[in-house]
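Write out the 3D structure for:
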Amino acid sequence: MTEKKKTKTKKKKITKETATKKVTKEKKKISAKEIIEAVENMTVKELAELVDTLEERFGVVAATPVTIAASTTKEEVKKEEEKTEFDVVLTNIGEKKIQVIKEVRTLTRLGLKEAKAVVDNAPEVVLKGISKEEAESAKKKLEDVGATVEIK
């Protein structure tokens, strides 16, 4: 009888080991490297089928970056940037140089020497990267003292 018990016990261990092996095989993950190698070995037709299957399975659409990039041109991006930030450029100081220097000092909080350098080097950027309202206000103040100003 002891031989029969040993046989039964041995069979149970084999069954457990086999079951464990099956579970480990099912849980084994494929590495990214293996996926890349598999994709590299596919034909164009197989790749197209793979893309279609992935789109259906996950409910996504594969779009090329070129089509997305083509929809927004450089000019559109520039216009969007310009809408938020403006530069005030002093193009001509006019006849009242001292008043223009005073106004530049007020707007920029520069010292006398720095404000004079800005006025003397016209055309020169007085204020950079400000909102449209601030740019319009600065332009009006400088024009009131006789300067010619552009907003860019």
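The chain is about 65% helix and 10% strand.
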